Amino acid sequence: xxxxNNPFSEENQNKEEETNQNIEETKTDxxxxxxxxxxxxxxxxxxxxLEELNSLYIRMAADFDNYRKRQAQERESLLKxxxxxxxxxxxxxxxxxxxxxxxxxxxxxxAKIKDCVDVIYKQLNDTVDKMGLKVIDTKDQKFxxxxxxxxxxxxxxxxxxxxxxxxxxxGYRLDDRVIRPAMVNVATEQ
Length: 190
Prior knowledge:
alpha+beta, Nucleotide Exchange Factor Grpe, Chain A, domain 2, 3-stranded antiparallel sheet, 6 strands
Protein backbone atom coordinates (compact mmCIF):
# COMPACT_ATOMS: atom_id res chain seq x y z
CA UNK A 1 0.00 0.00 0.00
CA UNK A 2 1.17 3.29 -0.84
CA UNK A 3 0.94 6.12 1.67
CA UNK A 4 -0.67 9.18 0.51
CA ASN A 5 1.32 12.22 1.54
CA ASN A 6 -0.80 14.55 -0.36
CA PRO A 7 -1.67 17.42 1.86
CA PHE A 8 -4.80 18.05 -0.15
CA SER A 9 -6.17 14.59 0.24
CA GLU A 10 -9.55 14.24 1.78
CA GLU A 11 -8.25 12.34 4.75
CA ASN A 12 -5.59 14.93 5.54
CA GLN A 13 -8.08 17.71 5.12
CA ASN A 14 -10.46 16.00 7.56
CA LYS A 15 -7.65 15.60 10.09
CA GLU A 16 -6.67 19.19 9.66
CA GLU A 17 -10.26 20.33 10.11
CA GLU A 18 -10.53 18.15 13.18
CA THR A 19 -7.34 19.62 14.59
CA ASN A 20 -8.51 23.16 13.85
CA GLN A 21 -11.85 22.34 15.45
CA ASN A 22 -10.08 21.00 18.57
CA ILE A 23 -7.94 24.12 18.70
CA GLU A 24 -11.07 26.33 18.40
CA GLU A 25 -12.82 24.34 21.12
CA THR A 26 -9.77 24.66 23.35
CA LYS A 27 -9.65 28.40 22.71
CA THR A 28 -13.40 28.65 23.40
CA ASP A 29 -12.97 26.58 26.57
CA UNK A 30 -10.07 28.81 27.68
CA UNK A 31 -12.14 31.91 26.92
CA UNK A 32 -15.11 30.46 28.82
CA UNK A 33 -12.82 29.61 31.74
CA UNK A 34 -11.38 33.12 31.69
CA UNK A 35 -14.87 34.61 31.49
CA UNK A 36 -16.06 32.38 34.31
CA UNK A 37 -12.98 33.21 36.36
CA UNK A 38 -13.57 36.89 35.67
CA UNK A 39 -17.24 36.54 36.66
CA UNK A 40 -16.25 34.71 39.85
CA UNK A 41 -13.79 37.47 40.73
CA UNK A 42 -16.41 40.10 39.97
CA UNK A 43 -19.01 38.23 42.03
CA UNK A 44 -16.60 37.97 44.96
CA UNK A 45 -15.79 41.65 44.66
CA UNK A 46 -19.50 42.55 44.62
CA UNK A 47 -20.20 40.26 47.59
CA UNK A 48 -17.40 41.90 49.55
CA UNK A 49 -18.71 45.36 48.64
CA LEU A 50 -22.24 44.32 49.65
CA GLU A 51 -20.97 43.06 53.01
CA GLU A 52 -19.12 46.35 53.62
CA LEU A 53 -22.19 48.41 52.72
CA ASN A 54 -24.42 46.20 54.86
CA SER A 55 -22.02 46.56 57.78
CA LEU A 56 -21.93 50.33 57.29
CA TYR A 57 -25.74 50.44 57.17
CA ILE A 58 -26.02 48.44 60.40
CA ARG A 59 -23.53 50.74 62.16
CA MET A 60 -25.34 53.86 60.92
CA ALA A 61 -28.70 52.46 62.01
CA ALA A 62 -27.27 51.69 65.47
CA ASP A 63 -25.71 55.17 65.69
CA PHE A 64 -29.01 56.79 64.74
CA ASP A 65 -30.91 54.67 67.25
CA ASN A 66 -28.43 55.70 69.97
CA TYR A 67 -28.78 59.35 68.92
CA ARG A 68 -32.58 59.11 69.08
CA LYS A 69 -32.41 57.54 72.56
CA ARG A 70 -29.98 60.22 73.75
CA GLN A 71 -32.26 62.98 72.44
CA ALA A 72 -35.28 61.44 74.17
CA GLN A 73 -33.31 61.16 77.41
CA GLU A 74 -32.14 64.79 77.18
CA ARG A 75 -35.68 65.98 76.42
CA GLU A 76 -37.00 64.04 79.42
CA SER A 77 -34.23 65.46 81.59
CA LEU A 78 -35.05 69.00 80.45
CA LEU A 79 -38.69 68.52 81.30
CA LYS A 80 -37.87 66.93 84.64
CA UNK A 81 -35.13 69.30 85.75
CA UNK A 82 -36.16 72.40 83.79
CA UNK A 83 -38.45 73.22 86.68
CA UNK A 84 -35.45 73.35 89.00
CA UNK A 85 -34.38 76.82 87.89
CA UNK A 86 -37.94 78.13 88.26
CA UNK A 87 -38.31 76.64 91.72
CA UNK A 88 -34.95 78.07 92.85
CA UNK A 89 -36.21 81.52 91.84
CA UNK A 90 -39.42 80.97 93.83
CA UNK A 91 -37.67 79.80 97.03
CA UNK A 92 -37.06 83.36 98.35
CA UNK A 93 -40.77 83.99 97.87
CA UNK A 94 -41.60 80.95 100.04
CA UNK A 95 -39.19 82.27 102.68
CA UNK A 96 -40.99 85.62 102.62
CA UNK A 97 -44.35 83.87 103.02
CA UNK A 98 -42.96 82.02 106.06
CA UNK A 99 -41.85 85.30 107.61
CA UNK A 100 -45.23 86.87 106.79
CA UNK A 101 -47.10 84.04 108.50
CA UNK A 102 -45.05 84.61 111.65
CA UNK A 103 -45.82 88.31 111.33
CA UNK A 104 -49.57 87.54 111.03
CA UNK A 105 -49.43 85.56 114.27
CA UNK A 106 -47.62 88.33 116.14
CA UNK A 107 -49.14 91.46 114.58
CA UNK A 108 -52.61 92.76 115.11
CA UNK A 109 -52.08 95.97 113.17
CA UNK A 110 -53.62 95.71 109.69
CA ALA A 111 -51.17 98.20 108.09
CA LYS A 112 -48.16 96.02 108.93
CA ILE A 113 -49.91 92.91 107.59
CA LYS A 114 -50.75 94.79 104.39
CA ASP A 115 -47.10 95.83 104.08
CA CYS A 116 -46.03 92.16 104.36
CA VAL A 117 -48.48 91.14 101.63
CA ASP A 118 -47.30 94.03 99.42
CA VAL A 119 -43.67 92.91 99.83
CA ILE A 120 -44.63 89.34 98.88
CA TYR A 121 -46.62 90.54 95.86
CA LYS A 122 -43.76 92.76 94.64
CA GLN A 123 -41.22 89.98 95.14
CA LEU A 124 -43.40 87.52 93.20
CA ASN A 125 -43.89 89.99 90.34
CA ASP A 126 -40.15 90.71 90.18
CA THR A 127 -39.37 86.98 90.11
CA VAL A 128 -41.77 86.08 87.32
CA ASP A 129 -40.74 89.22 85.39
CA LYS A 130 -37.11 88.02 85.44
CA MET A 131 -38.32 84.68 84.09
CA GLY A 132 -39.94 86.41 81.10
CA LEU A 133 -43.57 86.60 82.26
CA LYS A 134 -45.18 89.89 81.21
CA VAL A 135 -48.64 91.30 81.88
CA ILE A 136 -50.68 91.97 78.74
CA ASP A 137 -51.52 95.67 78.62
CA THR A 138 -55.25 96.45 78.32
CA LYS A 139 -55.54 100.08 79.45
CA ASP A 140 -56.87 102.27 76.59
CA GLN A 141 -56.15 99.49 74.09
CA LYS A 142 -58.16 98.33 71.10
CA PHE A 143 -59.50 94.80 71.44
CA UNK A 144 -57.09 92.26 69.87
CA UNK A 145 -58.29 88.63 69.88
CA UNK A 146 -54.65 87.50 69.91
CA UNK A 147 -54.15 88.99 73.39
CA UNK A 148 -57.64 89.60 74.79
CA UNK A 149 -60.74 87.53 75.46
CA UNK A 150 -63.96 89.55 75.35
CA UNK A 151 -66.22 88.17 78.08
CA UNK A 152 -68.50 91.23 78.11
CA UNK A 153 -69.64 93.83 75.60
CA UNK A 154 -71.10 97.09 76.78
CA UNK A 155 -72.97 99.46 74.44
CA UNK A 156 -71.62 102.95 75.16
CA UNK A 157 -70.91 106.26 73.50
CA UNK A 158 -68.15 107.17 75.98
CA UNK A 159 -65.58 104.94 74.22
CA UNK A 160 -64.78 104.10 70.61
CA UNK A 161 -66.12 100.80 69.33
CA UNK A 162 -63.85 97.79 70.12
CA UNK A 163 -62.02 99.70 72.87
CA UNK A 164 -61.38 97.88 76.15
CA UNK A 165 -63.45 99.44 78.91
CA UNK A 166 -62.31 97.27 81.81
CA UNK A 167 -59.96 94.43 82.57
CA UNK A 168 -61.72 91.61 84.42
CA UNK A 169 -58.70 89.31 84.70
CA UNK A 170 -55.07 89.96 83.84
CA GLY A 171 -53.55 88.22 80.85
CA TYR A 172 -49.95 87.02 80.64
CA ARG A 173 -47.42 86.22 77.97
CA LEU A 174 -44.13 84.41 78.26
CA ASP A 175 -41.75 86.30 76.00
CA ASP A 176 -43.74 86.38 72.72
CA ARG A 177 -46.20 83.61 73.55
CA VAL A 178 -49.59 84.28 75.16
CA ILE A 179 -50.12 81.86 78.04
CA ARG A 180 -53.40 83.39 79.18
CA PRO A 181 -55.36 86.09 77.35
CA ALA A 182 -56.69 89.03 79.35
CA MET A 183 -60.44 88.84 80.05
CA VAL A 184 -61.93 92.19 79.14
CA ASN A 185 -65.09 94.19 78.74
CA VAL A 186 -65.28 95.74 75.25
CA ALA A 187 -67.20 98.82 74.15
CA THR A 188 -69.74 98.36 71.35
CA GLU A 189 -71.78 100.84 69.39
CA GLN A 190 -74.94 102.03 71.15
